Amino acid sequence: MQNYDMNRYEPQFLKNLLRRMLLIRRFEEKAAQMYGLRKIGGFCHLYIGQEAVAVGSIAALDLKKDYVLTAYRDHGHAIACGMDPKAVMAELFGKKTGCSKGKGGSMHLFDVTKNFYGGNGIVGAHIPLAVGFALKIKYKNEDGAVLCFFGDGAIHQGAFHESLNMAKIWNLPVVFICENNHYGMGTSYERVSSVTEFSQMGAAYNITGVKVNGMDVIDVFENVKTAVQDARQGKPVLLDIDTYRYKGHSMTDPGKYRTKEEIEQFQQQDPVIGLKTQMIERNIINETDYNIIDEELKRISAESVEFAENSEEPPVENIYEDLFA
Amino acid sequence: MPEITFREALRQAIDEEMERDENVFIIGEEVGEYNGAYKVTQGLFDKYGAKRVIDTPITELGFTGLGIGAAMAGLRPIVEWMTFNFSLLAIDQVINNAAKYRYMSGGQIKIPVVFRGPNGPAEYLSSQHSQALQSLYAHIPGLKVIAPSTPYDAKGLLKSAVRDDNPVIFLEAEMMYSWKGEVPKDEYLIPIGKADIKKEGRDVTLVSYSKPMKIVIETAKELENQGIEAEVIDLRTIVPLDEKTLYESVRKTNRCVIVDESWPFASVGSHIAWLISKNCFDLLDAPVELVSSEPVPMPYNHKLELAVQPSKEKILNAVNKVFYK
Fold it and tell me: Is A31 strand, coil or helix?
């Protein structure tokens, strides 16, 4: 772990990071539980282990002018953008009160009022969209930037390569964030990548690539902040953020392709525990404060379930709604 | 009224819409400095510059996705595909993104983008460059599909397409670009979703759209010499389909021949034949006939390629059938 001087950060800023990460974790644990109870169906990709990536990155944005697009493992990004956990959980339940009115589900969370544009289930398919958002920023002479999150599985898709090329030739304000959680579904990135240091892949397009420790929320925040500054100047950036998902690819994946030792090795660098420890060392919080926060976030997660549970199903008449504007 | 080519009519539509709304821009291969592979965009680069007439690398998936993203972000892109054959590289973006984001976000997102270019058989181009792909696009809920046959309709409909808040597939044809027709100087719009009766008649309804309209009208003239008054309907828009105009015509004529240069399996033509057979069953004096292209890839040899497509002779044969001749 890189040593950042924690005294440089406002205590409230650090508390916010901790709260957001822990909220995602508690929310995801509830989602897993509800999936087990068959309240949630279909594909459900949990973000546990990767919290520092979404939270640290999005903390570097101003969502009045910046945009976020991501893939199907999107619960964490939705919450990091400030979406109400109730609207997210209700969407997982397929309820009318869900952020996408029960039409999107786990993979298609959106909140355009927070400039969060989802939520794409086709590996890599949203990367060109992000470049389109960046083109709009430049076209309108705005000051924003776009964060485009995707996994190591997406980095070999043509969409990724075409997007980097376009972003560079038109000098567009976009940061490409590869969340390398080591497995595209059950396949280790090392088995399917000619270049395993993904930060190097920017070089083919004359784009700066930076490797980031995705288990350290401060490292993520600092690198994304710098990348966003570059992007605003018309220099797209590629970040290779090394992270790890503790759970399977989706709820139906027992994860037999990896060892217990490997999972434990990453759990020892847990991003939530890591930040908590540093904050305790700096006397920003103590163990009791942490437990109070944790209880509150567990309650918020439980309330999101209660809200989803008590919400109505969308009426069948709505199937033809939202097709055309 | 001045007589102009189909290509000029399209250019006028693009030019007028770009002048009217600065959020409208055109992007594609060779649209700018080269002035368009088929010269539709001639002069626009000089007039509007590289910001609004954007030359792309050969990266159909990439710039199609970029156009969709820019539309989601608030611009109104016209994406030119050099031909629809190349749109197949981008079809994931169209089907999974353009047609889906509004619906799966519960109506949060608008996607005002037009995809246009030549579709359907040209001459001597063999299999990969001569295919009619409208049925693929018409199959996908969430897309509007337009296919005009005259310069007048092309201009009025393209302007409406640019102003529409939904993704629109706009089909032209290489062979049609030099066709001439009267186009008024004053601005006009043609509503999307309205068929046009190109010739009134009472004996048989001929339904077609896009390039085959020419031979359909010629056939109708020949039928006149035989004492058969054909009513010729130009769909102009495939989705949404103007069913009312079709049924009203069949109510009058009791016979129907559909001419569609698609392959017949699950095609625009076969779908309309089903609709008319089902909804006008009691009115029909004969089964609905469909003249389509032969279900083979396009051969290069001219005699063979003509034999594959609908022809006057094939249409006359079909008309004879509905008259039991």
Answer: helix
